[in-house]
Write a structure and sequence with these properties.
The chain has 225 residues and is of the alpha/beta class. It is built from six helices and six strands. It has helices at residues 7-13, 17-29, 43-52, 75-88, 113-123, 166-176; strands at residues 35-38, 64-69, 93-96, 128-130, 147-150, 155-158. It is globular, with a radius of gyration of 16 Å.
Length: 225
């Protein structure tokens, strides 16, 4: 099911970030339970899930919300997970990427093929997935469009927050008193697994001290025609 509107028209409309968020989520929700929202319990998901569940006539409630559990998430992330389920009244599907025999220990041993395999399992049979990617997050994401085609996986990729800034997110969180990961208050702007995440601006705290910038879940996509 291709999007009703092209990415280019949507990009022009994205000058209004609130409109861009709602419109992109409406497009994604047209896929019903064949749309997957990937949740990492960061500030982006605080905004995304809240807006998704406010869509007209409950259309967003059919979208599956999933997370990948690496077995080394911060305790604060686990707390946020429980708070999301309580506040939003949702049950988040879990896909296991842990490795008890060789636990993830840091930048030199993380983001194994198990994490990508868990994502592939989560997206099996899906037509679309929804992410919290924002252009502001770094060079590898600077050209992100609200709606893209993930040719590798053969599905549509929706990035409703593509044009949102850090200030936009926090304004919405405070306006609506949304739950959020308390690690953000401790200087963590981006939150991954405990062994390989440090406080830092943008994504600087992820795999700090290495050249690594992405975990492997997000691959090159193309703009819909």
């Amino acid at each position: 099911m291709p999007p009703v509107e092209s990415s280019q028209r949507h990009t022009n409309a994205a000058l209004d970030t609130g409109l861009s968020l709602t419109h992109t989520l409406r497009e994604a929700a047209r896929h019903g339970n064949q749309a997957v929202l990937l949740c990492s319990f960061q500030k982006e998901e605080s905004v995304l899930i809240d807006e998704l569940l406010r869509l007209d006539q409950g259309t967003g409630s059919a979208v599956r919300i999933v997370t990948i559990d690496t077995g080394v998430l911060f305790e604060e992330t686990m707390q946020t997970w429980r708070e999301f389920e309580k506040r939003y009244g949702v049950e988040i599907e879990v896909f296991d990427a842990s490795n008890p025999d060789a636990p993830w220990s840091g930048p030199e041993h993380c983001c194994s093929v198990a994490k990508v395999a868990a994502l592939e399992s989560a997206l099996a049979g899906a037509e679309a997935w929804i992410t919290g990617i924002r252009r502001e997050q770094g060079p590898t994401r600077a050209e992100t469009l609200p709606i893209e085609r993930d040719e590798k996986r053969g599905l549509w990729k929706y990035n409703p927050l593509a044009h949102w800034t850090e200030k936009d997110l926090w304004r919405r969180i405070h306006e609506r008193d949304l739950p959020y990961n308390p690690l953000h208050d401790q200087g963590y702007e981006s939150i991954g697994c405990a062994p390989c995440t440090q406080p830092g601006s943008g994504r600087e705290g992820r795999w700090a001290g290495t050249d690594k910038t992405e975990c492997g879940l997000h691959v090159e996509v193309v703009e819909p025609q």
